[in-house]
Amino acid sequence: MTILLSDLVVFLYFLSAGILMIYGLNCYVLIFLYRRGKPGAEKRRQAVLERFGDLMSRSDLPVVTTQIAVYNELNVAERVMRAACRMRYPAGLHEVQVLDDSTDETRRRVDAVAEELRGKGCDVRVIHRAVRTGFKAGALAHGMKQARGELVAVFDADFVPPEDYLLRSVPFFLAGPKLGLVQARWGHLNRCRSLITRSQSIGIDGHFMVEQAARNWNGLYMNFNGTAGLWRRSAIEDGGGWHWDTLTEDMDLSYRVQFAGWETVFLPDLVVPAEIPEDVSAFKSQQFRWAKGSIQTAIKLLPRLIRQPVPRFQKLQAFFHMTHYLVHPMMLSLSILALPVLCVLNIGIGPVIFGGIAIALTLSMMAPSALYTVSQRAAYADWKGRMLCLPVLVMMGVGIAVSNSQAVFEAFIGRESPFIRTPKRGDREVRRYRVGLPWLSVLEILLGLYCAESLGYYLAAQKYFIGPFLAIYAAGFLFVGLLTLAHSLGLEK
């Protein structure tokens, strides 16, 4: 290996490790912000609920429109419609819109359930579109043109809002005239379905219990999570309305609304249960959309963020938020460059530099686990038992680095892709929707074998610093790749 190539390998490896370390260290920052902001946030939340607690007796309540976005989701559409109609709110002030773009038998079932619910006194209306312009964002925008509500609640079809959802969220709009959004926490309907769902629930809880809370409670930009949120209609309009030029229209709108001066509130104790993807293929599809959409949003909005009259720390945290999925190309780079770096080490680079790499990797790898631990302790009394699934979550997080790196790359080159919803199972499992065949699973398996081979070379050379990380990379790529392949071949149970 030439000196120039050796220098390039070391530079790229250090660059990737350094970027991972920075994002990892920010997890510790978010943990600190969460703990600092929690007492004050709880007092403010309790004060609002005490002041506006008897909501049903008030005569000045705003009209609320609940929007349910549905597309070929026969398994779950009926369940969310019935749940929306069960939400308590004064008669005549709550309407339900079912934004049904379905092209299968879901359409007939939605119409039948809506007719039944109208007969029981629920103000529910089904809106069909002949053309799915803008996909989900387009459906929400189309429905809002016909909505009566001053406030607009948004739910995906696999969510089940609790009966008191409006009673616990509307008061914050009465207390804050500049409040644009109230975001609830996602719960888990099918957490116990499998090891895969148990593991994902830890990651979801980490995002909501720590990341969302830390941002919101410390005056930082927070995003709408696409569902389980209540919007002020004028805030949506002031922010420019729904756009569909990114795959994460929720993050895009959230930032534009906050750029326009509107505030947000996150309620960790208001939980809306939802379904977790039950197989690795569906999980990868969901993560691909989030990764690509986040980078698309960053490319679109970072120039505006720089010009915002807010503190630099707030801008920095927004940057980390929108670009978080850059960690996956960095992980992929580390896994590929590990073996070439060993060759460089064997021609003269000593253990000091190598030790620096190991420290950077250790900090970056442990930080998310620390964040997940804090979130589980905050949310559940049985948190210790739940944390037993953390190793599987770590493997899944590593294993999706290939597909998420593709998503990031496509975002940077401007390659468009359609909005693909995550398959749902539903209560009765009426029908099993399947994800399309993956094409990256073989590459993931090969990369896992490559990392395992690299680990063998490191151990043979008595270079033990990087060994644990290569073991995790090998396990993660093989775990995700083999499960994806099994799913595509119909071999999963």
Automatic annotation (TrEMBL):
<dbReference type="GO" id="GO:0071555">
    <property type="term" value="P:cell wall organization"/>
</dbReference>
<keyword id="KW-0812">Transmembrane</keyword>
<dbReference type="GO" id="GO:0016757">
    <property type="term" value="F:glycosyltransferase activity"/>
</dbReference>
<dbReference type="InterPro" id="IPR029044">
    <property type="entry name" value="Nucleotide-diphossugar_trans"/>
</dbReference>
<keyword id="KW-0333">Golgi apparatus</keyword>
<feature type="transmembrane region" description="Helical">
    <location>
        <begin position="353"/>
        <end position="375"/>
    </location>
</feature>
<keyword id="KW-0961">Cell wall biogenesis/degradation</keyword>
<feature type="transmembrane region" description="Helical">
    <location>
        <begin position="464"/>
        <end position="486"/>
    </location>
</feature>
<feature type="transmembrane region" description="Helical">
    <location>
        <begin position="325"/>
        <end position="347"/>
    </location>
</feature>
<keyword id="KW-0328">Glycosyltransferase</keyword>
<dbReference type="Pfam" id="PF13641">
    <property type="entry name" value="Glyco_tranf_2_3"/>
</dbReference>
<feature type="transmembrane region" description="Helical">
    <location>
        <begin position="387"/>
        <end position="413"/>
    </location>
</feature>
<keyword id="KW-0472">Membrane</keyword>
<feature type="transmembrane region" description="Helical">
    <location>
        <begin position="12"/>
        <end position="34"/>
    </location>
</feature>
<protein>
    <submittedName>
        <fullName>Glycosyl transferase family 2</fullName>
    </submittedName>
</protein>
<keyword id="KW-0808">Transferase</keyword>
<feature type="transmembrane region" description="Helical">
    <location>
        <begin position="433"/>
        <end position="452"/>
    </location>
</feature>
<keyword id="KW-1133">Transmembrane helix</keyword>
